[in-house]
Amino acid sequence: xxxxxxxxxxxxxxxxxxxxxxxxxxxxxxxxxxxxxxxxxxxxxxxxxxxxxxxxxxxxxxxxxxxxxxxxxxxxxxxxxxxxxxxxxxxxxxxxxxxxxxxxxxxxxxxxxxxxxxxxxxxxxxxxxxxxxxxxxxxxxxxxxxxxxxxxxxxxxxxxxxxxxxxxxxxxxxxxxxxxxxxxxxxxxxxxxxxxxxxxxxxxxxxxxxxxxxxxxxxxxxxxxxxxxxxxxxxxxxxxxxxxxxxxxxxxxxxxxxxxxxxxxxxxxxxxxxxxxxxxxx
Length: 282
Known about the structure:
Oligomer: single chain
Strand content: 5-15%
Strand order of the largest sheet: 3-4-5
């Protein structure tokens, strides 16, 4: 067989594979840089916002009653990041909240929300994290003050199917889940057993200190009195993507509106559709 024909045949086989790999990486970039707001925690914060020249190299400190932790370096730096981790180890960190040696990540890492990630999205996230510039920045490990455990978000116990993600209502739940909105917008239970998803889902009220001062998460339930029940779809979308409330006042970080602004209109619409279904809480 002609050598040129053989090479051309293999080139044809390789082209779809390369295109699929690029599509997966692009999907991972979209999720990491927008929906999942990974930069909100893992990129150092300066007075004017995230320092993207050090993107994903370790960021915010969380000094909580149960632990004191700094968001990890998740760049592919081999000495201080995840450059030596296998794909399976990165996926375990995302969904199980464990490091390669078996140590648990601090529960501020929303791995209990990421269990819902589709296999395709999980692959894309790993591919993208491997593609970002490595940054050398050693981040100390967490200090635990009390026993902690991973809390799984209700409905996120297992990966969602690709077909379900294509359904608008289910996609809205999927996106709100991997954006871990309810991690910030749900208060802790009075019993100290974790976030009160059962009785206070989306009620807000958690305080977040940072370079911006102290911000308090809003009620994002369908309550007309206390939540977003009497907001229009456009007003909810503006809050998500521009950080502006119905009354025109500005939201503070760590609300990730700067990242959500890059989401597709269809995805933001799906999120709004899901938020309309969240039972009202006062």
